[in-house]
Amino acid sequence: MEETISLQDLFKVLKKRLWMIISLIALGLLAAGLISYLVLTPVYQATTQILVNKKEETTELPQFSSQDIQTNLQLINTYNGIIKSPAILNIVIERLALDTTPTQLTNLITVNNEQNSQIINISVQDTEHFRAVDIANMTAEVFQEEVVELMNVNNVNILSPAVHMDNPSPIKPNPMLNMAIAAVVGLMLGVGIAFLLEYLDTSVRTEQDVEESLGLPVLGLIGSIPEETGTKTTRRKKV
């Protein structure tokens, strides 16, 4: 005979181990909160935007055709590689007196361009906000200077430099997100352990357990004598 489990039985198991499940959720929240606020080092991000356009040789107002924009968009991939190259980063390290190498600095810098746009974003992540701002701005400035010789062009302008803030917010860690993930993990772990303990528990405690184990109906029950009553009866017999 196949054993079937109803939703009512599942809820009974969860209710039986409810405090254990709640304890694991609380433990996960506490651990995630302590690690996020006290252990992990905050990381800040600063972003500088540069604009890549076509240099006009005439004194008239610049006119951009779709072909010009497409050509500039194709050059952006080249510019992205130049920005993170040692030719640029070595100068950045020297001017800011950074105690790092171009390879290590490359890992802190992210270069991307907005979709179908000539705007390049130079983002820098660092444990100090002021240093992230300085690196982002200096990288843009050095690139603007050096690209004239490297590519023989002068079509890069700084659109929006990174700005120092008094109370910057770190981009990571995200304590609320970490705590939410920890709560979900604690819930899943608690539910899993609850059903595992119920599956491993083969003890017989009630008449229903007897019926389920033997497959036979219960004909009668033997009542138990409370411990206090039994103790009083024994004392009377001794007297």
From TrEMBL:
Localization terms from the record: Cell membrane
For the Tyrosine-protein kinase G-rich domain, which residue ranges apply?
140-196
Q: Does the keyword Membrane apply?
A: yes
Check the record and name the InterPro entries matching this protein: Bact_polysacc_biosynth/exp, GNVR, LPS_length_determ_N
Where in this chain does the record put each Polysaccharide chain length determinant N-terminal domain? Answer: 3-95
UniProt cross-references to Pfam families, sorted A to Z: GNVR, Wzz
Give the UniProt keywords, A-Z.
Cell membrane, Membrane, Transmembrane, Transmembrane helix
Q: Where are the transmembrane segments?
A: 18-40, 176-197
Q: How does it sit in the membrane?
A: Multi-pass membrane protein
Task: Name the family the entry cites.
Answer: Belongs to the CpsC/CapA family.
PANTHER family linked to this entry: FERRIC ENTEROBACTIN TRANSPORT PROTEIN FEPE, TYROSINE-PROTEIN KINASE
Q: What is this protein called?
A: YveK family protein
The record lists the organism as Chryseomicrobium palamuruense
Organism lineage: Bacteria, Bacillati, Bacillota, Bacilli, Bacillales
